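Exam revision sheet. Question 4 asks you to relate a sequence to its structure. Input first:
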Amino acid sequence: MDMMQRLAAMEDRLGPGGPAVLVVGALVAWAGIYVQLGPLADGVVALTPLDPASHNGAALRFFVYDAPKVLMLLVLVVFLMGIVRSFFSPERTRALLSGRAEGLGNVLAAGLGVLTPFCSCSAVPLFIGFVSAGVPLGVTFSFLIAAPMVNEVALGLLFGLVGWQVALAYLGFGLTIAILAGWTIGRLGLEAWLEDWVLALKTEATAAPAIDMTPRARIGAGIEAVREIVGKVWPWVLGGIAVGALIHGYVPQDTMVSVMGSEAWWSVPVAVLLGIPMYSGAAGIIPVIEALIGKGAAIGTVLAFMMSVIALSLPEMIILRRVLKPRLIAVFVAVVGAGILAVGYLFNALFG
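Answer key, structure tokens:
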């Protein structure tokens, strides 16, 4: 019995509102468990012979507290955004961008990049579809940058882990980078630097299909998103939390401040360079970010590191090489990298 059949059976037993009742009950249980995670972590550490103030005790407490916290936040955010996703499709997204002029198109594309939860791997095929549908190159780049970097999972986790100020700052500056970088690339007129086979595509924009789903189907879409996304990323999430626990428990605060503090002018570019070879989604890297901030690392440097991991990762560049010539990839990295450096220095100046 698949998920939709189970929801239908529940509706038969509980009435038309059965699935909604289940969701409300699950949210209440989620909140009840979430508020007890701190005492639970303290209790687990107390059961061990470790001193809570020791390196091992601090690392264990961080992991036991953050692992369920991050996974619970991830499930909640992915479920809600799975419902949001049910209102969109790649075809509808492409149709919304087709025929848009630069400027307004860049803003719209970046906004859609936030609302449509496509990672860099799925954003590249959409990029090809946009180009073939006649969407301006700069507009497509705004979407390509915003989709993986300014995503709903990152926003939800940042809000839950380090506060709304950092989450809103990440949203605002991430959108700014996506809009301005896309607009700049569009002004340079670099269409000839696309791979020839991309330029040769002559497909017409597909009309957006009508998306008419029942509330039960939308709830099912949210549950399916949790099954697919959380099922794939949870090992990376736990890996990121483990790294964060090691940083929290073992890395001296003075060392972290000296490497990633606002006083070191070179810390921002070094953080960006360190982030590029890494591969992690937002869910995997944010626990590391939380630990770095807790150790006294400068907020601007940490944000620059996070943005470079998500938006300029080496695996994404390898994927992009299939559709972009090396010169255009270099322009993309330079423009986005300059925006990330500006964010790092600006935040260090404001909050350092």
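Marking note for examiners. The chain has 18 helices and no strands.
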